[in-house]
């Protein structure tokens, strides 16, 4: 009897060890496939080695969040949009990332291949990788794509919200279909996908239109990712992914990495953002113009009012996890991951305020009955599999 009791105690201790959210979270390799801190903060002169109060990300909070591998998004959107300047900005952002790593050797490191990712993710440092967001960054020039690969690009998002001459975006395919000269990938676009496959750069299909999505997935020889996209069936906005797309990603062996933006997680938030903008903007602004307040101040006041009103409708962390759940139920636990879009969005769910909050996702998944094995896949294992299949 005493022996049996001893055995039961050991078993329950082991069980609580494997089920402890914080231990499981620390053991798992957490990969986030999309963070915009380079373009939104670093280029503005902010130092992510300091504790920043008005951003989602800094090195202190990444450590607290237990993040092991972070894809840093390289992106700009010059207005007016033209073909000059994107590539130059990409090089500048990549240089800025390398400078941060050089200045913080005990907290950050860099990886260019799968072996380095695996080895360095166990060194208690944030492993940085580069993802370039938007085909416009290569300025229609294959040699610039090759040069960005040499500089460390390990995924390329075929389009951002803007279409290129060779790939149409979700935004344009949805809202400007009649103005498009072509739809999907052109021959050059197909060459881009092939070149990415050859080089060992992951094809990222976030932001792209459905036609581009299906054209790309038909010709890629490697698994793809959607670096920051959520589920259309829960929140039907133009750049979330539909069930058939999720099934196509699963067939390809790829991963959909969930975007945390409130307006992509909650349809109510999305609806309210439209409602408040459409119904209240004019009356609000007119009331201030009547008081002879100048237009810059009126715009600033409107933005503050609009954001304050909207924040009442922020979704919760649990609603973000519903998106993970949905994909797991639709196609299994091998095809979903995390692509927060921190520092690229102005509203995130309650409970997911910044990069220190990832452990709460592990807690929530455990609460929902997910196994340790499943959680490890979702937090990073699935994306690691795609890296291994793509990287040289
Ligand atoms: Zn984006």
Protein architecture, described:
- The strands form 2 sheets. Strands 1, 2, 3, 4, 5 and 6 form a 6-stranded parallel sheet that branches.
- This protein starts with a helix and ends with a helix.
- It is built from 17 helices and 9 strands.
- It is of the alpha/beta class and 392 residues long.
- Helix content is 50%, strand content 10%.
- α2 packs across α16.
- β4, α7 and β5 form a beta-alpha-beta unit.
- The mean pLDDT is 92.
- The structure holds zinc ion.
Describe the structure concisely:
By secondary structure, the protein is α/β, with parallel strands linked by helices. The protein has helices at 2-19, 21-27, 37-40, 59-65, 86-103, 114-120, 142-150, 170-175, 187-199, 210-219, 243-252, 262-265, 267-289, 295-311, 317-331, 358-367, 372-390, and strands at residues 31-35, 69-74, 108-110, 126-133, 153-157, 202-204, 225-226, 255-258, 336-338.
Describe the secondary structure blueprint for this structure.
Elements lengths: L1 H18 L1 H7 L3 E5 L1 H4 L18 H7 L3 E6 L11 H18 L4 E3 L3 H7 L5 E8 L8 H9 L2 E5 L12 H6 L11 H13 L2 E3 L5 H10 L5 E2 L16 H10 L2 E4 L3 H4 L1 H23 L5 H17 L5 H15 L4 E3 L19 H10 L4 H19 L2
Parallel strand pairs: 1-2, 2-4, 3-4, 4-5, 5-6, 7-8, 8-9
The protein binds zinc ion.
The site of zinc ion has 4 residues, from loops.
